[in-house]
């Protein structure tokens, strides 16, 4: 793929920041801040496609498939962080791949992003199938490793989503769902693309937050899937149970103790009056959704 670097740099210059090197520090920062406000507007314009992404990912997880975030370089690191922060346990269907593997989280490895075949092989290595969904991340849309992964997923008939800035790329053509926030020229041209990456992270945050809600990990606007892995998280569990059930600290601790510190079960016990065994069973029968289990419990009690 040929390009004209000089013409590209000229086209991507931001007219509003042409004299940024002459400004006082406060004026420069105000200019950057004002320009960054365009990011949210660019993401908002993509809400129909993001809705398709979330609904598609929810359907995939609901039938036992996985949602695989994949990218190279900064995009890959964003994918790994988003998947790693999705939930406090490893019992979920969101995972990430970065070109070059774990070492790429710490340093840039020459050549890995340009390896088309490696992208395909990395998906094969995790036994990616037609039941899974690939969410490809690439600001430029021109990463061969990602093309390989996308083309392999596409060949299986899997849903392939793309989060990028560029519209006319092979990656965009391979995507079933293309999310392309147009953030405009960067404040400073010629080095990196912070605005485009921030838009990418906003979309990832919307995906992971909405997926957590749809998977029953949220009740109201509170995460109820917390695990007691440390004293800090035990205290967070107690606070969540107190808030969700409207009870005191002693009641929350007692309920958690009776159900092996399973946050959703404790809340269901306190709100429904069910014992720990029946509350846990009811959650299991309803896909771990506290909201649905509460409705079922109400029918049982009445």
What can you tell me about this protein's structure?
This protein is an alpha/beta fold and 302 residues long. The chain has two domains: 6-214, Rossmann fold (3-Layer(aba) Sandwich); 218-301, Helicase, Ruva Protein, domain 3. It has 13 helices and seven strands. It has helices at residues 5-11, 25-44, 47-62, 73-84, 116-125, 144-156, 170-174, 194-214, 231-245, 249-258, 263-272, 276-285, 290-301; strands at 67-71, 94-98, 133-137, 159-163, 177-179, 218-219, 222-223. The strands form two sheets. The chain has a five-stranded parallel sheet with strand order 2-1-3-4-5, with helices on both faces. Strand 1 (67-71), helix 4 and strand 2 (94-98) form a beta-alpha-beta unit. Helix 10 (249-258) crosses helix 11 and helix 11 (263-272) crosses helix 12 (276-285). The radius of gyration is 23 Å and the shape is globular. The protein starts with a helix and ends with a helix.
Topology:
Layout: H1 5-11, H2 25-44, H3 47-62, E1 67-71, H4 73-84, E2 94-98, H5 116-125, E3 133-137, H6 144-156, E4 159-163, H7 170-174, E5 177-179, H8 194-214, E6 218-219, E7 222-223, H9 231-245, H10 249-258, H11 263-272, H12 276-285, H13 290-301
Parallel strand pairs: 1-2, 1-3, 3-4, 4-5
Antiparallel strand pairs: 6-7
Helix pairs in contact: 2-8, 3-8, 4-8, 5-6, 9-10, 9-11, 10-11, 11-12, 11-13, 12-13
CATH architecture name of the largest domain: 3-Layer(aba) Sandwich
- Specify the overall morphology: globular
- Largest beta sheet: strand ordering: 2-1-3-4-5
**Name of the CATH homologous superfamily of the largest domain:** Glucose-6-phosphate isomerase like protein, domain 1
Tell me about the largest β-sheet.
5 strands, parallel
How many separate domains? 2
Low-confidence segments, ≥5 residues, pLDDT <50?
1-10
Per DSSP, the total helix count is: 13
Which CATH C-level class of the largest domain is it? Alpha Beta
The secondary-structure class comes to alpha/beta
């Amino acid at each position: 793929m040929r390009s004209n670097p000089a013409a590209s740099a000229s086209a991507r210059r931001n007219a509003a920041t042409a004299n940024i090197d002459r400004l006082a520090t406060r004026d420069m920062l105000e200019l950057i801040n004002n320009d960054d406000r365009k990011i949210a507007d660019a993401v908002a314009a993509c809400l129909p496609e993001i809705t398709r992404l979330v609904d598609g990912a929810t359907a995939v997880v609901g039938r036992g498939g996985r949602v695989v975030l994949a990218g190279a370089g900064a995009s890959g690191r964003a994918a790994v962080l988003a998947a790693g922060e999705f939930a406090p346990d490893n019992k979920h269907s969101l995972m990430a791949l970065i070109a070059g593997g774990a070492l790429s989280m710490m340093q840039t490895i020459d050549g890995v992003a340009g390896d088309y075949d490696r992208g395909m092989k990395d998906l094969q290595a995790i036994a990616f199938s037609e039941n899974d969904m690939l969410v490809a991340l690439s600001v430029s849309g021109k990463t061969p490793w990602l093309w390989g992964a996308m083309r392999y997923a596409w060949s299986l008939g899997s849903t392939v989503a793309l989060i990028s800035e560029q519209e006319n790329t092979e990656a965009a053509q391979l995507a079933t769902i293309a999310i392309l926030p147009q953030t405009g020229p960067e404040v400073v041209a010629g080095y990196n693309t912070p605005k485009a990456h921030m838009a990418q992270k906003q979309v990832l945050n919307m995906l992971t937050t909405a997926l957590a809600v749809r998977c029953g990990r949220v009740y109201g606007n509170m995460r109820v899937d917390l695990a007691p892995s440390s004293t800090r998280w035990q205290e967070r569990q107690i606070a969540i149970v107190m808030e969700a059930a409207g009870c005191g600290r002693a009641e929350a601790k007692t309920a958690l103790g009776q159900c092996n510190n399973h946050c959703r079960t404790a809340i269901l016990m306190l709100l429904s009056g069910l014992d720990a065994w029946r509350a846990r069973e009811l959650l299991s029968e309803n896909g771990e959704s506290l909201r649905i289990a509460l409705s079922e419990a109400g029918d049982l009690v009445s």
